[in-house]
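Weekly modeling sync, notes
Attendees: S.R. (lead), two postdocs, one rotation student

Agenda item 3: backlog of single-chain predictions. S.R. asked that every request posted to the team notebook include the full sequence so nobody has to chase files. The rotation student volunteered to paste the first one in as an example of the format we agreed on. Action items at the bottom.

Example entry:
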Amino acid sequence: MIHTLKPGCSRYGPLLCALMTLQSLSIGVRNLHIDELISASDVIVVAEVTDVTASGPGKLVVFRDQLLQSEAYVGNLTVMRTIRGSAPEHITIRYNLPLSFVGYQGLHTGVRLVFLRKEKAGFSLADPYYPDFPALPTVAGIGGQSHAGGDYKTATLGEMLAVIASSNTSSAEKSEILRVDYALPHNKDVIAALKEGLSSVHDPELRQRIQGELLRFGDVSELPDVANLLLANLATENQRIWLLYVIGNRVSDARAIPALQPLVASEESSIREAAVEALWHIADPTAVPLLLKSLNDTDEQVRFYAVRAFSDIANEPSWGGPSELQFHQHQQEYLTHWQSWAGGRTQ
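Predicted structure, as returned to the notebook:
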């Protein structure tokens, strides 16, 4: 049976995709956009956040034209360095969180990167969904002065990436940054931070998560190790789903083909599906022998991805752009065509 999922999802993680979709629809949590968060912030600081306490009933919170009961909170900040704007050394923040969960987050204690808006009475949180992120007490190359007129985005990203790269931050802190991986740019700085972080991580769950992130951001250097983990069934349950997803949906570099070869021969259909889907995205002629074998795979999804790959390699959209339903109904025609085409090129 062939499964059809939303764009951006994969059959390797349907539960994850479904939960994310339901969460967005039910509570309206918007994705993080770092540019927008910075624009909404008059002041961005790295501060030690202490004494976050509930202080009783808060003001009614307007959410989707509803008035929600809330709890009032107070947090104390000791500013360590300023990224944007100006702020006193000590700040008291007051905010309200609805009693029913709608995705709003309060301040976390510890060293945090905090986004603030100036108010007449002091400061408020710039974004109730993303009020803060973990940070380091000191970061090389980042001083204690405001980046007035400077590149606030680069400075903010530098703080976030430093958490991933540091050997002194916890798995929970690194994971907090990785939860918004989609907001990070696809550039060498992100890849360098992930590689540095990977070098000091021993927790298998986090290590495999970072390996998947490197694949997601286009670095295939960890793919041989990831392939071995999958083939030996050593990936954790959660990360196995993640690793198969990024292989099938994010790998598009021809240098990955040698590491994909043993995955194509796996006894597990989900692993073969991810590998052949990657070969489709790579669409390199050197993969033709692997794909030819996949046309005879016992799994229909593998055969479908192989046909799509041949179509892109041969630039024959009329013979490879079938929908999953079309392929299911007429697959022997597609298989015969591409077996003949590929057979003439592998002799």
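Discussion: group reviewed the output briefly. Residues 324-346 form the longest helix (23 residues).
Action items: rotation student to repeat for the remaining queue; S.R. to check formatting next week.
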